[in-house]
Amino acid sequence: MTLALQGLDEIRADQENFYRDLHAHPELSHQESRTAAEVAARLRAAGCEVHTGVGGTGVVGVLQRGDGPGVLLRADMDALPVREETGLDYASSVTATGADGNATPVMHACGHDMHVVCLVGAVELLSRAGEWCGRLVAVFQPGEEVADGARRMVDDGLAGIVGKVDVALCQHVLAFPAGLVGTRSGPTLSAADSMRITVHGRGAHGSMPQASVDPVVLAAMIVVRLQTIIARETRPGEPAVLTVGSIQAGTKSNVIPDKATILLNLRTYDEDTRHAILTAVKRIVVAECDASRSPRPPEFELFDQYPMTDNGPVVTERVAAAFAEHFGDDAGELPLQTASEDFSVIPRALGIPYTYWGIGGTDPELYRQAEVEGRIADDVPVNHSSKFAPLLQPTLDAGTAALTVAARAFLGTA
Ligand code: ZN
Ligand code: ZN
Questions:
Q1: Nearest to 78, CA basis, from 38, 108, 99, 39
Q2: How far is the CA of 393 from the centre of ligand 1 (A)?
Q3: What is the CATH number of domain 191-305?
Q4: Backbone phi, psi, residue 74, to 5°
């Protein structure tokens, strides 16, 4: 066992209380002030140099112990506009004002509360342990769910606060059995692009289609035709997802509207594929507009863009070896994920390699039962679901241990 982990028994009860408190008090993206204040206080108590207000509500804690390698660990802090339906006795009943100005229920439906508590715990353990040297930097990031929290921290001078570090590490709780950890080398999380497409028609009375250019029919043609990009233009075996998540036009059955708006989401693992698909989307939309006699060119707007998470092979190998030693058979390979993350913005800005791994959060018995019955998709809540809540233990122990042993694998020995 890593020497630093010997303190886990002493901090566990406090960690569990901290987790229940954070879970009951989730905060939306860029509103994480209560969480940030609690994190800052705990980092100070652990002896860190603490920087607050980085990129809004971001917090950075630094422990420097003589000369040695530098390791950056990152946790995200934000929750989602979801009404919690877990039935837990520490479930959230919080509401907040969302980005659209409307009141919304808020829930830690992605498990970022678990990330925060695991990282604070790892810092506490390493702070107590005397056997290492080097620089430990813990980054608590706001706004992961809105794709710009990492960028805001970088733009607010994160590099100057972080100083010299050699590697960046990050983890996410996912819907596989609690107690397991999974690493992966190379492409791990997809690049994500969202696009708003506005197509124009000519409005008219619903009884006089000859006077109109109908954007409803135009948008429908586009949605169908877009399905051919993955099916007919992308190499079989190349993972990519194109989803039209919203299509809006008109207000009334007998009024032909004058425009339609399509929102689509794209997931890719290769920059050439990403570029080819985005080019194909525009080509098809422009051609369908021509085919429909659209009076004005369509408009395209990209938003909520996440870079691909592409784990460095050398870093991943070292973390995987440390996990194999600590977790034994509970350490394995993480499958390719279609989700996306903005974590890699930070190591890219710092010019250092990184790796991002998964920790299980699902009740192992529930998972096993669902697997036996072929009902994983039905019975195992996934991230962002109103029923997603990591099993408090062993998820918390495993996540805290994972960060600690991974950091320890890079820090020097005093
Ligand atoms: Zn999420
Ligand atoms: Zn998340």
A1: 108
A2: 21
A3: 3.30.70.360
A4: -125, 135
